[in-house]
Automatic annotation (TrEMBL):
Signal peptide range in chain numbering: none
Domain of life: Eukaryota
Family per similarity comment: Belongs to the aldehyde dehydrogenase family.
Protein source organism: Strongylocentrotus purpuratus
Entry EC no(s): 1.2.1.3
Record protein name field: aldehyde dehydrogenase (NAD(+))
Aldehyde dehydrogenase domain mapped to chain residues: 61-517
Active-site residues, record numbering mapped to chain: 293
C-alpha cells in the first residue's frame, strides 16, 4: 500500500492542510504561563514522539502541534522514524511473551491502576484534548472519563471472560473453548477521539494479554504523548516488561508499515472509509485481522407522534456537538411532513442560541474545526448542497476570527438521494429531509453506504420494534428517542457496510483481541469417533 493511500482526506489521518508541519514557531503556547499546566503532563517545548518501550526517542521530522482555536503552535514534537518503528515492534514482541503468561486477574489489577492514574490527571488531560483537538471542555473531560470507564469494565472482565464447556457426544470426553492472547496489537486512532478510542482498544487488548503499538493521528501528538506517559508510569511502578505499550507519532509510513507487518496479528483502525478499506485490504492480504471503525452518514427519523421537546435538544447535540466531527454525528434529519415545518423553525431558533467561542471556556458549546482542511470540507459541502438545489436555512459561512471556526449549518430542500446527501461530510452541516411515511424514512436511512448510527423518535411501540428488527435500521447502533451520538461503553461500538463491521468497547468486543481454540480432551480409555464413524 503506497504511503499516499494513508494520506487521503478523512477524519482520522493526515490533515495536511492544517499547518502541522510549520517548523520552529517563534513562540509556543506551552511557554505562556497561562498554559503552564501542560507541564503537569510531562510535556515541554520539545517532545519526543516515539516511545519504543524502554526510552523516549524520535528520529523523524520535527513538527508543531497546532491549537485549532487560535492557529498557534502549542509545542514541538519529534516524530517517529522507521528505525523507531522497528525497535518498537521488537520490544513489543518480547513484552508479549511475558505479559501473556501473567494471570488475567493480575493483568486486570494493572489495568485498574491505569484508571486511577488517569483519574489523577483527568483535568489536565481533558484540557489538553480541548486545546489540541478543539472540542469543548466538558467533552475533553468526558473523553478521559470514557477511557477510565473502559478500564473499569476491563478490570471486571479480567475475572469473567471465558470460553464455553460444551456437551460432548462421546463418553469420557470434554469439549471446551480456550481463549488466548494473539500478540502485539496495532492501534491507529483518529484526531477526534485521540484518548478515548485508544482507551477502547488498549483496555481490552491489555487485559486480554496482548502488547500494544499505538499510532495516533499526526495532528494530536501531545495527547498521544501525555496519555502514553500516564500509562507507562503504571507499567514502571509494577515493573512490567518494557515494550508492553509503545507509541509512534508520525505519518502514513508508520501506518503502512503496521498494516503490512506480519508481526502485528491485529490492526485496529479508526478513520475514513477509503483509508480503512486500504488498511483492511493490506492486512487481509497477509491473512492478518483488522478491526475497522470507519465513517458514518447518520440519520435521525422523527415521526408525527414524537415528543418535539426531546427532538430539538437531541438533534442540536447530535448535529453540532464536537463541531460535527464525531463519526456518529447526525448528518441527515428525516422529518415526517406533519412536523417538518415546526421542527425546522425550532431548530433554527436553537441554532441561534449556540454559544461559540474558546473551547476551554466552560460556557462555550461550540468550538473550532480541528484543522484548516476541515474548514475546506465544510465550505465544499455547503457549496455542493446549494449547487444541487439546497437552501441554507442557518449558517453556511466561515467565522471571521482566529482559528478554524465555521457556522453551524442547516440545509433544506434537497432530494433524499442527492449526491451531497449520500456522501459523508465531516463538518457541522445538517441536511433536513421531508418524508411521507415511516417506511419511506427507514428506506432513506438505509440507502447510504455507511451503517454506523441511527435513531428514531416516536412513541409507537410497533414502529419501535420494527425499527430494531431485521427490516428496520441496518446500522450497528440503532437508538430510540436519543441522539445518534454519545454512546455508553457497555455496548459494542461499530457499524455495518462501509463503516467496516468492527466492534470496539463493551459487550463481547474483547473476543476480537484474542484467538479461540476448540479443545477436545479424552479422559477415558476408549477412542470413539464423532458422528458414529467406524475406522477399524
Amino acid at each position: 500500500m503506497a504511503v499516499h493511500m494513508l494520506k487521503r482526506v478523512s477524519h482520522q489521518t493526515l490533515r495536511l492542510k492544517r499547518p502541522l508541519f510549520a517548523r520552529f514557531s517563534s513562540s509556543l503556547l506551552i511557554e505562556d504561563p497561562k498554559y503552564g499546566w501542560l507541564k503537569e503532563l510531562g510535556l515541554g517545548a520539545d517532545n519526543d514522539g516515539a516511545f519504543t518501550g524502554d526510552r523516549w526517542a524520535g528520529r523523524g521530522e520535527v513538527v508543531d502541534s497546532i491549537c485549532p482555536a487560535n492557529g498557534q503552535a502549542i509545542a514541538r514534537v519529534r516524530q517517529a522514524s522507521m528505525e523507531d518503528y522497528e525497535t518498537a515492534i521488537q520490544m513489543s514482541q518480547e513484552a508479549f511473551k511475558i505479559w501473556s503468561d501473567i494471570p488475567a486477574p493480575n493483568r486486570g489489577e494493572v489495568v485498574r491502576q491505569i484508571g486511577e492514574a488517569l483519574r489523577e490527571k483527568k483535568q489536565f488531560l481533558g484540557n489538553l484534548i480541548t486545546l489540541e483537538v478543539g472540542k469543548i471542555a466538558s467533552e475533553g473531560l468526558g473523553e478521559v472519563q470514557e477511557f477510565i470507564d473502559m478500564l473499569d469494565f476491563s478490570t471486571g472482565l479480567s475475572r469473567t471472560f471465558a470460553g464455553q464447556v460444551i456437551p460432548s457426544e462421546r463418553p469420557g470426553h470434554a469439549l471446551l473453548e480456550q481463549w488466548n492472547p494473539i500478540g502485539p496489537v496495532g492501534i491507529i486512532t483518529a484526531f477526534n477521539f485521540p484518548n478515548a478510542v485508544f482507551g477502547w482498544n488498549a483496555s481490552l487488548a491489555l487485559v486480554c494479554g496482548n502488547s500494544i503499538m499505538w499510532k495516533g493521528a499526526p495532528t494530536t501528538p501531545l495527547v498521544n504523548i501525555a496519555t502514553t506517559k500516564i500509562v507507562q508510569s503504571v507499567m514502571d511502578a509494577n515493573h512490567m516488561p518494557p515494550g508492553l505499550v509503545t507509541l509512534l507519532c508520525g505519518g502514513g509510513d508508520i501506518g503502512e508499515a503496521m498494516a503490512k507487518d506480519t508481526r502485528v496479528p491485529l490492526v485496529s483502525f479508526t478513520g475514513s472509509t477509503p483509508v480503512g478499506q486500504k488498511v483492511g485490504t493490506t492486512v487481509q492480504d497477509r491473512f492478518g485481522k483488522s478491526l475497522l471503525e470507519l465513517g458514518g452518514n447518520n440519520a435521525i427519523i422523527v415521526l408525527n407522534d414524537a415528543d418535539l421537546d426531546m427532538v430539538v435538544p437531541a438533534v442540536l447535540f447530535a448535529s453540532v456537538g464536537t463541531t460535527g466531527q464525531r463519526c456518529t454525528t447526525t448528518r441527515r434529519l428525516i422529518l415526517h411532513e406533519s412536523v417538518h415545518d415546526e421542527v425546522v423553525n425550532r431548530l433554527k431558533k436553537a441554532y441561534g442560541t449556540i454559544r461559540i467561542g474558546d473551547p476551554l471556556d466552560d460556557n462555550t458549546l461550540y468550538g473550532p474545526m480541528h484543522s484548516e482542511q476541515g474548514v475546506e470540507v465544510f465550505k465544499s459541502a455547503v457549496a455542493a448542497a446549494v449547487s444541487q438545489g439546497g437552501k441554507v436555512e442557518v449558517g453556511g459561512k466561515t467565522i471571521d476570527r482566529p482559528g478554524y471556526y465555521v457556522e453551524p449549518t442547516i440545509v433544506t430542500g434537497l432530494a433524499h438521494d442527492a449526491e451531497i446527501i449520500l456522501r459523508e461530510s465531516f463538518a457541522p452541516v445538517l441536511f433536513i429531509l421531508k418524508t411521507k411515511s415511516f417506511e419511506e424514512a427507514v428506506s432513506w436511512n438505509n440507502e447510504v453506504k455507511q451503517g454506523l448510527s441511527s435513531s428514531l423518535f416516536t412513541k409507537d411501540l410497533g414502529r419501535i420494534f420494527h425499527w430494531l428488527g431485521p427490516k428496520g435500521s441496518d446500522c450497528g447502533i440503532v437508538n430510540v428517542n436519543i441522539p445518534t451520538s454519545g454512546a455508553e461503553i457497555g455496548g459494542a461500538f461499530g457499524g455495518e457496510k462501509h463503516t467496516g463491521g468492527g466492534r470496539e468497547s463493551g459487550s463481547d468486543a474483547w473476543k476480537q483481541y484474542m484467538r479461540r481454540s476448540t479443545c477436545t480432551v479424552n479422559y477415558s480409555k476408549d477412542l470413539p469417533l464423532a458422528q458414529g464413524v467406524k475406522f477399524e
